[in-house]
Task: inverse folding
């Protein structure tokens, strides 16, 4: 017979926090991680002998974190039992995941089993994103700017700025449409795409990453210069190259006419061969 228990989702804060919260900073400006309590309540009698096991469910399989009255793996040395629950000290991103508490008890009715599934999410503030902005571009070409950071949990969203002003997100209705936006900004992936870049897109760009945890982070400002394609300059260069090639061809033809490329006959030796 199985007794079902409701799982609960625990959210642990790992970020720069206001003084009112319980996280503190040491002198090196690092901070102590908070603790997480994974609760596993049961209705068995206190007189019943219990066997308790905790497991972590991951994509690569299920592994023990508490087995045979001992913690294993990453939790060894920084976790302790609270009755049938677990207190984890100094939680990190690696502690995020789904845990399962399994309790078995012997009774007059036989072996009784119960389990609870708990999801632990460790929230981490974003780090400074890496931004890629081309320094120059030609009008009419496709240009993409990118912004990414990988430390934030949950994943960060991204906002692009031009000359210090937040760019509007392109939508079917609203201000972005009225402003005749020529770009597409993806806040999830951090890309800013210009399908047909113009000189008006010249400016100083930077990106901001945020996930609601701690302070948002910005990359350094980078300038993108958009110039018109110099058609007259290209034509002039092509004509110049054609004239140079024609001059070289005429020079070769003249040299051949004058016999400069004709091989001379070998002169008789000054000294006859010795016989």
Result:
């Amino acid at each position: 017979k199985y007794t079902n228990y409701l799982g609960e989702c625990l959210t642990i804060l790992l970020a720069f926090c206001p003084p009112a919260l319980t996280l503190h900073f040491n002198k090196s400006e690092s901070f102590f991680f908070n603790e997480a309590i994974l609760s596993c309540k049961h209705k068995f009698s206190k007189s019943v002998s219990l066997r308790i096991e905790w497991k972590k469910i991951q994509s690569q399989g299920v592994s023990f974190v508490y087995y045979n009255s001992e913690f294993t793996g990453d939790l060894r040395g920084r976790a302790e039992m609270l009755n049938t629950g677990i207190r984890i000290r100094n939680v990190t991103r690696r502690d995020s995941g789904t845990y399962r508490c399994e309790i078995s008890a012997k009774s007059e009715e036989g072996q009784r089993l119960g389990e609870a599934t708990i999801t632990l999410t460790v929230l981490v503030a974003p780090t400074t994103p890496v931004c890629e902005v081309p320094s120059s571009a030609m009008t009419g070409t496709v240009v993409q700017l990118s912004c990414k950071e990988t430390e934030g949990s949950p994943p960060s969203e991204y906002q692009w700025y031009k000359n210090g002003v937040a760019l509007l997100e392109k939508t079917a209705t609203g201000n972005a449409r009225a402003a005749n936006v020529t770009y597409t900004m993806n806040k999830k992936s951090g890309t800013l795409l210009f399908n047909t870049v113009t000189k008006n897109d010249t400016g100083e760009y930077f990106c901001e990453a945020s996930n609601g945890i701690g302070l948002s982070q910005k990359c350094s400002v980078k300038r993108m210069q958009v110039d018109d394609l110099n058609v007259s300059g290209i034509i002039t260069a092509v004509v110049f190259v054609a004239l140079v090639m024609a001059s070289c061809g005429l020079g070769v033809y003249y040299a051949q006419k004058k016999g400069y490329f004709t091989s001379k006959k070998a002169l008789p030796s000054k000294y006859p061969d010795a016989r």
Q: What stands out?
A: The chain has two domains: 2-123, 130-227. The mean pLDDT is 77. The helical segments are 175-178, 231-257. The chain is about 10% helix and 40% strand.
